[in-house]
Amino acid sequence: MSLLIGGIVLSLIVALVIGKFVFKRGILAMITLTLYHVFLLLENSGFSIRKSSLKREENLSNDEKGAIERQKALEGLDNRELATLRLVDLIFGSLKYSLPPLPANQKPYTAEQIVENCRILKNRSSDAIFALNAGPFHQPDERPDFTLKGSSVKSLYFNFSKNQKRKIAILHFHGGAYVSGVSDLCYIHERWCSENSFDLLGLEYTTYPQSTVEQITEEAFRAFKWLVDVKGHSEIYVIGESAGGNLCWQIADKISQLNPSTDANYVNALKGAILLSPWCDMEMDTPPSRDLFHQDRLIRNEKIREWKLNGVPCGLGQQEKTQILSPYHWNREKWQRIASVLPKGMFISYTSGERLNYEIGSVLEKLKGIDNVNVLVEKIPFHVFHIFVDYLPDHYKRTVNGILNLIRL
Asked: Where do the Alpha/beta hydrolase fold-3 domain residues begin and end (predicted)?
């Protein structure tokens, strides 16, 4: 035990020193990275959160049933995945099973309450903390604004393709259910973009309820046109996590409806889509969304409740509109039209343990037979695990390899 404690102390010191002087990261990033390495050491030393036996599933409380599902979800995970889950549980708390994810018979919020609630949701976004461990954090070359009404927070543009004959641009859309998230999350992809001399544009878009999905799509298209018209790009790939993946499909759908004669520059510039745990059913009404005991550490029961009660992302009582905008409900003909403007195809990465697994699988069924649809499936029960650049280096490498294989076709 003394050796273990000594190892933990040593790992703390080493991680802090490396984080401060080698990676030049802030204190919060160093703390989270240090805690991760402590949990990894515990897993490697045999002090695992995974238990060898499970209780019988009879006459159990919700917490006991949740504990059983928790252990099932840990089966087959490696030590890095287990250490990552321990870190997430420490930061955000254990999963709760007291209230169902979908609210029933609860009075809707007023418009004023929704505005305030969504402001709190945006400020409480859980994604950004993990972006702190991305990097190496180059300074953006430009901070353009593509919002329809103007924004104090700007998009980030990195010109990594200097002196390159073949100029490739990566247009990034952050996730956050269209209600939270910021353009800084593009730093998750900065490393592989800079290493491969790909320009990177991280879009800052107006979120719900100040904007609609259609308006956000228009802001994304403004950014796309800027890359073509101002920066002279003729090879652009859209990439996004969760709602950002949804936005990739929204903009591809928009471009697929342009006139190929008058808008050839835009139609021909889009080459492929990179979809990381894409949000397909914005109604959030699939079996996993209703599952009280689901083990996804990011899309928790309380988060779904908050989204549903606040009408995220299309507004309360907008079921028909939400279905129209949800890829989960799109027909084969629409998918074929979208694929027609993605000549390099699509790369879709997600995990079998995440809450969107069911709806992504349904979309993949509709994409069968369409050329150049490549899929990578991991197991960790965490939606958009791709944000763990440093915690899950093997996952990161597999994802980047899939992306580069798409671009280099």
From this structure: 170-309
